[in-house]
Amino acid sequence: MTKADFSKIPSVDVLISSPKSSKLISMFGRPLVVEAIRQLLEEIRGHVEDPNFQLPTPPIILKQVEQKLEKWTSAKLHPVINATGVILHTNLGRSPISKAASEAMAVVSQSYSTLEYDIQKGKRGSRYSHSEDQLVRLTGAESAMVVNNNAAALLLILSALARRRRVLISRTQLIEIGGGFRIPEVMKQSGAILEEIGSTNKVHLNDYQKAIDELPIGLVLRAHRSNFKIIGFSAEPNMKEIAEITHQAGLILVDDLGSGTFIDTAQFGLEHETTVQEALEAGADLVCFSGDKLLGGPQAGIIVGKKKLIDKLKKHPMARAIRADKAALAGLSATLLHYLKDEAKSTIPIWQMISMDVDSINKRVRNWIKVLKTGELIEGDSAVGGGSLPGELLPTYLLSIKVEKPEKIMKKLRQQEPPIIARVQDDRIVFDPRTILDHQEKDFLSSLQKAFA
Ligand SMILES: *Cc1c(COP(=O)(O)O)cnc(C)c1O
Questions:
Q1: What is the pLDDT of residues 270-315, one digit of tens each?
Q2: What are the structural domains, with CATH classification, of the chain?
Q3: Contact 443, 418 (CB under 8 A)
Q4: Of 69, 202, 232, 415, which has fewest CB within 10 angstroms of its CB?
Q5: In this structure, which residue's CA is closest to atom 14 in ligand 1?
């Protein structure tokens, strides 16, 4: 830029009074537009020593201002199209929720609500009341409580019931779930003392008995291996047996189910995941699980079990710090209603995906190929994912498109609106219809056409 150019850089005042700026102000508000113009002019002045830099004209400057404003104001958290076939994709927000659940969340957020108000009595109520009856009816538990997430649920249980006391857990269950959530560290946080028994691959009932006989144990914990499997020379006593000796000694048995399901997963050709009802029947005094894994609801931590224990949890100071918010409570309640009405498999997206019949998936891929005029149909696998059913796969059909540089196309796909997240398999990009929601299919196809154009 020449010296003469430098003196020609327009002022903020000149730029802000242009018609284009009026339009930007109506879209983004005056303070943000002024800030964007200031920053851009600053950047231009930074090129004062650069002989190759050409001073942009005011319309070009304002175009760049607009781009800045769009970048600053674009939502950072927005929907994506999950074509990976991983149903509970932790990085993509775990379970999408049902229409009824999302409507319930919106409605309760837009107005005042009965969050902590008892309509019958006309006075203060409890935020714990909303899903308690539903959970009790669904699981047969004496009582229930909902907190912010399952990690918080476990932390609360250990803090309230086992602080400065020994918690017995098998070495086969000293798990890390991800995001730094490790059972030994959660124990430390809660003030409980970890008492490990057994070996990495095996634990016997006798190990439990011996520890209970010899040490002042406060609580016995079982944690579900949500994201890995032990295969080969391995064994654990069943929960009924552990419950028996735990209760004989007058101790509390807690089962962290992780995912927690009300529906038997074996009916879909998957391994049987212990249901919440089964965990209670086996003798767990408290069972905790997530709201947004196999339950298919919003983020929440659910605790069901003995009333005496849950009353204690509700009164603990930590409960206030990890309470669930009203939108999540409304969404969870609507989700639980699907289970009560025995319509979960047809209304909750993740169960629709898990139970999707392969012929219909095959048809969808064929239809895509017709529309796109490219790609081929291949066999593949979908995964349940998200800390449930490790290694379990569901047979599926994929749209497979051969490309020269998969990473380049994958990036293009991520730049679409909404972004498409797919999988690379060899030198192909594959798309699994199972996890693409009906209302996203039109956008998916038009974005695919753009990305491959
Ligand atoms: C997923 C999981 C958790 C954590 O649950 P969040 O709802 O993600 O907090 C805890 N324990 C087990 C066994 C899990 O699988």
A1: 999 999 999 999 999 999 999 999 999 999 999 999 999 999 999 9
A2: 3-73 (no CATH), 81-89+351-451 (3.90.1150.180), 98-347 (3.40.640.10)
A3: yes
A4: 232
A5: 258
